[in-house]
Amino acid sequence: MQDENPYQAPQAALQDPAVHELVLADRGMRLAGAIIDGMLLALILLPMMAIGGYFDGVMRGEQPSLASQLGWGLGGIVLFVIVQGVPLARSGQTWAKKMLKMRIVDLDGHQPPFGKLIGLRYLPTQLISMVPVLGALFGLVDALFIFGEERRCIHDLIAGTRVVRVD
């Protein structure tokens, strides 16, 4: 007497190999990526600020107005989306992450939607960083979270993302 149905589908548990083989990006590579992306943004934004007169008053020792600081801060966010939007939308990578062979994935290993990346991963931390004192403190704590076992910064926790290596 046979207990198994020969026509029954196999019962093996299957795993998505793309999700199973994800390797977290090294902390040093993530730091290098953040530095490169920051330099890329600075190469574009700082000349714009100089041409726009932001530094004229600063060079005379004047404190920029809150409106001016917020305007340039929001301009920096818009510039980030313009510069990094295409690679983020296409592959979950900034230009530096693409160069350093890293990408942003959700906790299931899939590419997060562009709106989620901008709206949860980048925008909240950039807005908080514009608040005097609190912004600098938040930036430090956010970066220090990478030393946790999961290597996820606060912006990763907010967005439900992680950064993995791409081979």
Describe this structure in words.
The protein is mainly α. The chain has one domain. It is built from eight helices and two strands. It has helices at residues 17-20, 27-51, 54-59, 66-91, 95-99, 114-129, 134-144, 154-159, and strands at residues 102-106, 161-165. A two-stranded antiparallel sheet has the order 1-2. Helix 2 crosses helix 4 and helix 4 runs antiparallel to helix 6 (114-129). The protein is elongated, with a radius of gyration of 21 Å.
Major sheet characteristics: 2 strands, antiparallel
pLDDT averaged residue by residue:
91
Secondary-structure-derived class: mainly alpha
Q: How many structural domains does the protein architecture include?
A: 1
**What's the helix count?**
8
Evaluate the radius of gyration: 21 Å
Approximate helicity band: 55-70%
For the largest sheet, list the strands in their spatial order: 1-2
| Net shape | elongated
Distance between the termini: 51 Å
pLDDT < 50 stretches: none
In sequence order, what are the helices and strands, one letter per element?
Answer: HHHHHEHHHE
Count of extended strands: 2
Strand content: 5-15%
